[in-house]
């Protein structure tokens, strides 16, 4: 149906009698929710600001990414794949599960957590869509609008990302590089006030690659207990510790402090894309009361449960994965880490902090030693434009002056000199890449930390160039 309308002319007069369809005077206006727009991923915010144009002559080497599957060399083992195949082919896992997870899957996870010394049963487990979802639910269950939550610095940027929508403030407590990134316990305690709702704890650490000793864990728990604060323990790198270190689940060390242990398959089982994580509610003295438990269960309804195919596979994954799978992965990452550490340590101006687990190493940049670079962000940019090597700047982790290297990269065997390369080597893993780190002194004072990568007969190089005065 058409209406006779008057159309306003450009000159402001109105032309009568022109035939027109309805004029809708209301404009489209869809505003983004302020909370959505205010949600920031610190990595994106910082990285998007950088000028990252790789050297076209050199293959990009992303030392930035904590996804061990990217290089193609860390693969889930046969037992894990078989478990998922079985789950899929059975046809039994196509429907919804209870929002907090299938009972048999929760039981399997509870048993697995118990093997780390936690005292939990199936009703203490909430299955989530990855560990980040576990953290989201844990924080949402505890954070009262306007409260503050303590988080490590340097630390995983997701904690900050979650704070906007959940309406809590982050207060950072420092980790001490000179003490293997242990928590500065005095500083931690000084950050607590009446508005503090919980402490986020991360061990082994991303981005530090550190692993806490049992003594340090107990000292930390004492502070939580004294201040009557629950802990959200991000232990997604559980057990990814190098030989000589031991992982202690936080909740195994206290029967007093209520702890939401957050973990999942992502890192230890090397399947980040499978999106399967969990919360284990550790609350032996019932300090959470009913509310936190009820809140977590209610929140799990928001996505009506996590992926059921993987839930169907969980009991077999947790039971059947051979120890050797984990051991080989750890050896491999540890070799990478130690080689990188050794090589970088001798470079004046670079101070790598020796990692003890997880996939990462932080390297301090004494920027005064690098007159070619204005600051550490400039150094990161230059590494990309000169060498096509990308490390994340410490700013992404609230820690300027450092870069983070991801170490879970392809590296068939860790020979760091030519002569070793022809040794007989075990062929247990189907890896095609040999990489090694080398350092040259050139032109007297020009030092090149060079990381050679040999890949199918070709040699790729990447490194840090630095002019420095000795
Ligand atoms: C990778 C990572 C996570 C997220 O794990 P997903 O299971 O992929 O969600 C959580 N915490 C830390 C410290 C991580 O490094």
From TrEMBL:
NCBIfam families: tyr_amTase_E, tyr_nico_aTase
Cofactors, names only: pyridoxal 5'-phosphate
Role summary: Transaminase involved in tyrosine breakdown. Converts tyrosine to p-hydroxyphenylpyruvate.
EC number from the UniProt entry: 2.6.1.5
Aminotransferase class I/classII large domain segment(s): 60-413
Top-tier EC class: transferase
Database matches in Pfam families: Aminotran_1_2
GO terms assigned for molecular function: L-tyrosine-2-oxoglutarate transaminase activity; pyridoxal phosphate binding
Protein family membership: Belongs to the class-I pyridoxal-phosphate-dependent aminotransferase family.
Catalyzed chemical reaction(s): L-tyrosine + 2-oxoglutarate = 3-(4-hydroxyphenyl)pyruvate + L-glutamate
GO terms of biological process kind: L-phenylalanine catabolic process; L-tyrosine catabolic process
Pathway where this protein functions: Amino-acid degradation; L-phenylalanine degradation; acetoacetate and fumarate from L-phenylalanine: step 2/6
Protein name: Tyrosine aminotransferase
Residue numbers of N6-(pyridoxal phosphate)lysine PTMs: 267
Keyword terms of this UniProt record: Aminotransferase, Pyridoxal phosphate, Transferase, Tyrosine catabolism
Top-level lineage group: Eukaryota
Assembly with partners or alone: Homodimer.
